[in-house]
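Z., the sequence and structure:
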Amino acid sequence: MSQLNQPDWEKIAEKFDLWLPHLAPVGEVLLDKLAAQPGNRILDVASGTGEPALTLAQRMGNRVTITGTDAAAALVRVAQNKAQQLRLNHLQFETLKGMEHSGNDAHHALVLRSV
């Protein structure tokens, strides 16, 4: 999809979470299927404002390491702020397009993709 077809994420990032109640059931199914285990390194692609990575980070604590990515920098900023407020030091967010993860994906035990 070209940049021209993208919404203005800067304008809607703070309001994006209004969708979370509708997306939460899908996130729960994804987390159940993921079956994360202590010691896993998890890559969450298309994290948006942080879900389901934030929920997983809270449930698993520092027993897992999670990297969330999204192409929209505004959404990543919202997600980073949430992680900082919740003191989730084992969770980080990066602005990347799709599967263009900056690191070696081989070191991630599990990959979670919401969209």
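Residues 3-113 form a domain with the Rossmann fold fold (CATH 3.40.50.150). Helices lie at 9-12, 20-34, 53-60, 73-85.

Let me know what you think.
H.
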